[in-house]
Design a protein that fits this description.
The chain has 120 residues and is mostly helical. The protein is 45% helix and 8% strand. The protein is built from six helices and two strands, in the order αββααααα. Strands 1-2 form a two-stranded antiparallel ribbon. It is globular and about 35 Å long. The model is unreliable at 9-21 (pLDDT under 50).
C-alpha cells in the first residue's frame, strides 16, 4: 500500500482555522462567526497586568463590562464559570441564547462610543 505525503502546511492551517470558526462563545455557548461580531476579552483586565484573552461575541463582551468593574473582574470574575454564575450575566445569557450568532444589540456600545455621545 502506497503512503501519501503529508498535506501542505496551508491546508493544515486552514483546517485548524475552520475548526476554530465552529467554536462556541465561552460565555453564551452560541456559535461564533468570524468577523465584526467577535471581540477578545482579557480575563484579568490589562490595567491589572492581565494577558490571557478569550474570543467571544461582541455583545457578550460588552455586557460583561457593563455589569462588572475592572476590580470585580480581577478579584472575583476572572474565570468563565464565575462570569456565568453572576445573576445579571446569567439572565443575559438566557436572553441572548435565542439570538442568531451575529446578533448585536445597538444598546451595547463600547466605551469610546459612549464617551463621544456624552460630549455632544
Amino acid at each position: 500500500m502506497r503512503r501519501l505525503p503529508p498535506p501542505p502546511i496551508a491546508i493544515a492551517i486552514a483546517a485548524t482555522r475552520h475548526d476554530e470558526d465552529r467554536s462556541a462563545c465561552p460565555l453564551c455557548g452560541r456559535p461564533m462567526v468570524p468577523g465584526a461580531s467577535l471581540n477578545e476579552h482579557h480575563l484579568i483586565p490589562r490595567t491589572y497586568g492581565g494577558r490571557e484573552t478569550v474570543t467571544m461575541h461582541r455583545i457578550c463582551h460588552a455586557k460583561i463590562h457593563a455589569v462588572l468593574t475592572e476590580q470585580q473582574l480581577r478579584d472575583q470574575y476572572h474565570e468563565i464559570d464565575a462570569l456565568r454564575g453572576h445573576p445579571d450575566l446569567a439572565a443575559f445569557i438566557r436572553w441572548v441564547r435565542r439570538k442568531p450568532p451575529e446578533f448585536n444589540d445597538g444598546h451595547a456600545t463600547d466605551r469610546q462610543t459612549r464617551d463621544r455621545r456624552r460630549m455632544r
